[in-house]
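Justification of resources, computational component.

The compute hours requested in this renewal are based largely on the per-chain cost of generating structure records like the one below. Each record pairs the submitted sequence with a full structure-token output. That output is archived, and it is also reused by downstream analysis tasks.
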Amino acid sequence: MKQFVALIALALPFYAVPAQASPELAAKSKCMTCHDVAKKKMGPAFKDISAKYKGQKDAEAMLANSMLKGVKGKWGKIPMPPQKIAPTDAQKLSKWMLTL
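The structure output for this chain reads:
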């Protein structure tokens, strides 16, 4: 029984801490070149993106798709070209943005 409890205690951190995006993933993915968390740069602030789409049930998928395929006309005249990131990173980033 003690071995079982010890095994659960060792495994728990892997289940309790989900993989989430962060400003570090955004920087690694080069998002911070055009975006910032709180203020507009070339592109909108992540907080502004979150405010615009928060509560929309398809927002996470739509944002990930926008990163992967590019988008124009949603935030002004400057288009965002398709980003060279993994689809799983795009999903993590869109989920993270919607928490801001």
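Residues 22 and 96 are 7 Å apart (CA to CA). The longest helix spans residues 2-16.
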